Every structure is written in C-alpha cells, then in structure tokens.
Amino acid sequence: MIREATLKDITEMQLIRNTVRENVLSNPALVTRQDYEDYLSEKGRSWVCVVDGALVGFAAVDLQNNNVWALFVKVGQEGKGYGKQLHDVMVNWYFAQSETPLWLSTDPGTRAERFYLRQGWTCVGSFGQQEVKFEMSKLAWQSQVINNLQKYPRDIAL
C-alpha cells in the first residue's frame, strides 16, 4: 500500500536510506531528521510503501527545486515493484502541481540508473562530480503513462 508519509515514518525512512547498497551517502549525518520533515509537506511531499505492516520503501519530491529528493527501497525488497509504485505516485503528484520538468541525479552504472531509463527519464549529462542527471517533462510523463496503458491495460488502475 502506498500512502503519504508522516512524522512517525521518519525513523524507518532514515534506516532504509542509510542501509542501501547503491547511492550510499558519504556522510549520513548530513541528511537530518529535519530534512525528512521538510519533505513531508513544506518543500514537497513524501510517500511510503507499506507491506504487511512494514515500511519497505519511500519516495520524496522537492516541489521548490523541481527534483526527486529520494526514492529508496529496503534491502531485500528490491525487484518487487515497490519502487515503481512509489515512483509513479510521486511523479503523478508532482505533475499535478507543476508544469516544470522534474530532475534527479543518481550514481552511474547502478540499478537506479537503469530503473529511471526504463521509466522514460532522459539522461541530460553529469551532475556534481560523480552522478548522472536525468529529466522528465510533463509531456514525456504523460506519454509514458499512455504507453503503459496500451501495454498493460489490466495492470493499470485508474
């Protein structure tokens, strides 16, 4: 089940973020509880995926800076579709609020990079010293949704 994140979810969100195998934070102390709180409502919105009462992933989007702040799935829960569900809810919400293209960055050569390419993101170059930058326009997102409806009409709940 995907739902909006609450203050009670932050500790588990931090645990997931700090235990991933890829896109590891060089200094986890630099991402504070306050950062998570800001993405619950002030800067954008956050969602969690809950399976059998346990939080297995989360996503957060920054409406002020037009970027994906986080999309992470708990180690051992990857490949089950939770990240895609979170991604789709997040991107749908973002483009309901804004016409501005959305961007994100991730480490090159990772599962995350391949995931974003499969979701229709466009690589637009490098970001910082070691990451790649992706963008998604509202039109590209709408096209991706239409393509998915045509490919998998029974899997899409409107």
From TrEMBL:
Q: Carries keyword Acyltransferase?
A: yes
**InterPro entries, per this entry?**
Acyl_CoA_acyltransferase, GNAT_dom
UniProt xrefs under Pfam families: Acetyltransf_1
Q: Please tell me whether the keyword DNA repair is annotated for this protein.
A: no
Concerning SUPFAM superfamilies, the annotation shows: Acyl-CoA N-acyltransferases (Nat)
EC?
2.3.-.-
Under the GO molecular function aspect, what terms does this record hold? Answer: acyltransferase activity
Q: Which residues form the N-acetyltransferase domain?
A: 1-141
Q: Which UniProt keywords apply?
A: Acyltransferase, Transferase
What Gene3D superfamilies does UniProt report for this protein, alphabetically? 3.40.630.30
What is the recorded name of this protein? GNAT family N-acetyltransferase
Recorded source organism is Rufibacter roseus
* Organism phylogeny: Bacteria, Pseudomonadati, Bacteroidota, Cytophagia, Cytophagales
